[in-house]
From TrEMBL:
UniProt organism field: Streptomyces zagrosensis
PANTHER family: ACETYLTRANSFERASE (PTHR43441:SF10), RIBOSOMAL-PROTEIN-SERINE ACETYLTRANSFERASE (PTHR43441)
Source lineage: Bacteria, Bacillati, Actinomycetota, Actinomycetes, Kitasatosporales
Keyword vocabulary terms for this entry: Transferase
Record-level GO cellular component terms: cytoplasm
GO MF, one example: protein-N-terminal-alanine acetyltransferase activity
Keyword Cell inner membrane carried by entry: no
PROSITE patterns per record: GNAT
The protein's name: RimJ/RimL family protein N-acetyltransferase
C-alpha cells in the first residue's frame, strides 16, 4: 500500500471510508509536520501537541520520543490516514502495564472532524489495552471547554471522574481538565452493547 511517499507495513482499517490506523514513527516526521501545519490552530486550541513540532527537527524528535516510549512499553502513537493522507492520530500518552493503567488521547485536522475517526481509532487502542495487555483503567483527559473531546469520551462509554481546576496554562489563562475513564469490565459491557445495537 503506497501512502505518504512510503509503504505502510502495518495498518488497521477503521471502516470502509479509506481510513487507516498505523504507527506514527520518526521517518514520518515530514508528513507529520505537513499535517500539523494544515490545521495547527485547530489542533492547538486545547492541547499542546502542535507546540511540540514546529519544524522538521522538532517533529522528528517528538516522534522519536514516542518510539522510545514504545520501546520501553510506556506509550505509543498512531496516525490516522484517510485516503492516504495523514489527518490526525491517537496515542497512549502514558501506558503502565504493571499498574494496569493508561491514558489515551487524540487530535484531528479540522477538515475531518465529525466522521467518527477518533472514536473508531480509540476503540482499537482500548480493545488492545484491555484484551491483550490486561489494562484495567483507561483514562481520557479533556479541556473542560472541549465539547468534542467530552462527547467522544461519552461515546466511548467513559464515566466522568472529576475536574482538575486550573490544571494547566493555555491561551493566556488557566484551564480546567476533566478526567474521564473506563474500567475493563465496563469496557467489555460497552463493546457487547455496541455490537448488539
Amino acid at each position: 500500500m503506497r501512502a505518504g511517499g512510503g509503504y505502510a507495513m502495518f495498518a488497521i482499517l477503521l471502516g470502509d471510508d479509506g481510513a487507516e490506523l498505523r504507527p506514527l514513527e520518526p521517518w514520518n516526521a515530514e508528513e507529520y509536520l505537513t499535517h500539523l501545519d494544515r490545521s495547527r490552530d485547530h489542533i492547538g486550541r486545547y492541547i499542546g501537541l502542535a507546540d511540540a513540532a514546529t519544524d522538521l527537527d522538532s517533529a522528528r524528535a517528538f516522534l522519536q520520543s514516542y518510539a522510545d516510549k514504545t520501546a520501553a512499553d510506556g506509550g505509543r502513537i498512531y496516525g490516522i490516514w484517510l485516503d492516504g493522507t495523514l489527518v490526525g492520530g491517537v496515542l497512549f500518552r502514558t501506558f503502565d502495564a504493571p499498574a494496569g493503567t493508561c491514558e489515551v488521547g487524540c487530535w484531528l485536522e479540522e477538515s475531518v472532524v465529525g466522521r467518527g475517526l477518533v472514536t473508531r481509532a480509540i476503540r482499537v487502542l482500548i480493545d488492545w489495552a484491555v484484551n491483550d495487555r490486561a489494562i484495567y483503567r483507561v483514562e481520557w483527559l479533556a479541556d473542560s471547554a472541549n465539547a468534542a473531546s467530552i462527547k467522544a469520551a461519552k461515546r466511548l462509554g467513559m464515566a466522568r471522574d472529576g475536574v482538575l481546576r486550573g490544571s494547566y496554562a493555555r491561551g493566556g489563562g488557566r484551564r480546567d481538565i476533566e478526567v474521564w475513564s473506563v474500567l475493563a469490565p465496563d469496557w467489555r459491557k460497552h463493546r457487547e452493547t455496541s455490537a448488539r445495537g
